[in-house]
Amino acid sequence: MPTPTPGQRMRVLWLSTVSFTLMFAVWLMLGMLSIPISKELGLSDSQLYWLALTAILAGSILRFNFGVWTDKYGGRIMMTILLLLTVVPTFGVSLIENYTQLLICAALYGIAGNSFSVGIAWNAAWFPKERQGLALGVFGAGNVGASVTKLVGPLLIATIPASGFFDGAIPGGWRFIPAAYSALLLLMAAIVWFAAPKLARCPGRGKSLAEMSAPLKHRRVWEYSLHYVVVFGAYVALSGVLPKYYYSNYGADLAQSLSLSAQTVADFPKVKKMQGDEYKDYLKANPAVAEDLKKLTMWIGWLAGICYVFPASLLRPLGGWLSDRFGPKVVMTGVFVAMIAAGTVLSLPLGLDVWAFTAALFVLGAGMGIGKASVYKLIPDSFPQNIGAVGGLVGLLGALGGVLIPLGVVPLQGLTGLPQMLFGVLLGLTVVSAIWFQTEQWLSRQETVDAVPAEAMATAASGR
Predict the structure, then answer these.
(1) Which of 7, 64, 219, 365 could anchor a disulfide with 311, C-beta 3.0 to 4.6 Å?
(2) Over the stretch 275-322, which tens digit does the pLDDT of each residue have?
(3) Is residue 204 part of a domain?
């Protein structure tokens, strides 16, 4: 394959990063929209969990396939296809009238989550090994897409007329968000197709599926997958439920901190339990409270976005640079220390106020952001010829962690009555992951020590 120019590499990096950011925003858009949607449709917490899990599954189970296909056919083709496949179901969310319709749309637009595997394989094929850590870190910062809806969504919902524009042809309120995303997806597909380098670098072309899957038998693939569950799967799970967690557990605390009206603070415990027509009728009868709740929702989006999603996304390039500079193993050790410390604080019933909770959440997010880049620096170091397949499987299993964590949380919360079990499950996984990581480092050192005497004996024998 001809050597790419620096300009071609940068085009691949930025086009893939912007595409991934947009599709990640689409993939996790229900995280912030769940508050107004659940109020309008009268959805239960269980139904919201299943909506989030459906979208996560759809964006996870084909990650291995998309990684392999990108290695075989090229990133430009696969990214364009994925953008186009997501357009219609995303727009469909703006038209839904009931839970079943929303569930079907989530299963279809959730395919956007597979864009990560496409981008990883696409960039790895275009950048040399010594620059892959930073390049993959910059690309992975597209995780910040999870905060787009959290930051912009509440503002648009508050300002866009509920009736929309052009007699409802463009929907208003929360429905404007998925409609706008669908237009951006279509535009981005055209940009990628016409602006990306036409040259297809396909390291998997000509290889059989068996050849590309061979490294998956290695235990390190499964080790890296568990690490990615901790730094990415948990990130996806928390991004989806964090706005609701803030609203349910810190809404009253935050309302007081924001100096909202006395009526809003006093009525909040009963308001947060209202659904459907009861909720709509209350807001119509109390317009001042309705405005306060819009402000509260906006602040929740900002806190979840700026203090968790931002560090868990925008620090990914830093994690890539640190991994290039000091090695991913050193960086991962620091990540585990930070995440276990923050996870312990968040898991215990310490009675944290909203600001102490947010500070601990920031540390957790920073560890995840740096850790995501470190894990994906380990992959090309260990499997340089099979980055698409290995990266796809690690991404698949890591994203599936976003499904398993909520499934483990619900029964534990029911047994203990503690909402902190959301973080307790993550803490347990982090400890197991850290122990496996340190065990592998010890085994590697032992293999190196054992290999030295055998090498010396072979050299001595050949000299006789």
Answers:
(1) 365
(2) 778 888 888 899 898 888 888 888 887 888 788 878 887 788 888 889
(3) no
